[in-house]
Amino acid sequence: MKRNRIVLIIVLVVIGGIVFYAGSGDQTPEEYAEYIEKEREEQDRFMRYSDESPFAKDSVTFQGLNHYPADKSFKVKGRFEPIPNPKIITLGTNDGKKEQYLEYGYAIFPLLDKENKLLILENVTENVLFLAFGDATSAIDTYGAGRYLDVDHAGDKTIILDFNLAYNPYCAYSAGFSCPFPPKENLLDIAITAGEKSYLTD
Fold it and tell me: How much is the pTM?
């Protein structure tokens, strides 16, 4: 019985160490690349098979998403700056409509030898954060109307942005979708060579 208890404790310690290591961000470049690859495989699986995929009702065969190679230098830790008196702002969309979001705060982060600043918005209907941005790759290697990045924030003074997980809005694949453009504050003059590129068709 005592031996079983010791084995159980060892197993729990090992599992705890694995969980801590995975969540600590101390991955090697190889481990990080493997993580990103798994995320992209899941994206492709969703696009190919899900009824909610933008390709579900499209006669065009899904060709697979196109990405930059994983680069851990584009996973950045920045300073979070709250907005004291947040306002509702309106973003235009690709089909001429308007969508409203609540200002949430700014992510201020160093990347490519300069300090950058992005406005994070909140979708109050879905209670999720929304970050859309354009950069020097837009309309060259990446979708011209900008890309999106999912953001989590626990309310502290720092924030993590991983541009390797940047993705295209659905209107990049089909004209039947309405997608908000990035706010003017989020048009960066640096090249974010990370994340999803323009979708390629035969």
Answer: 0.84
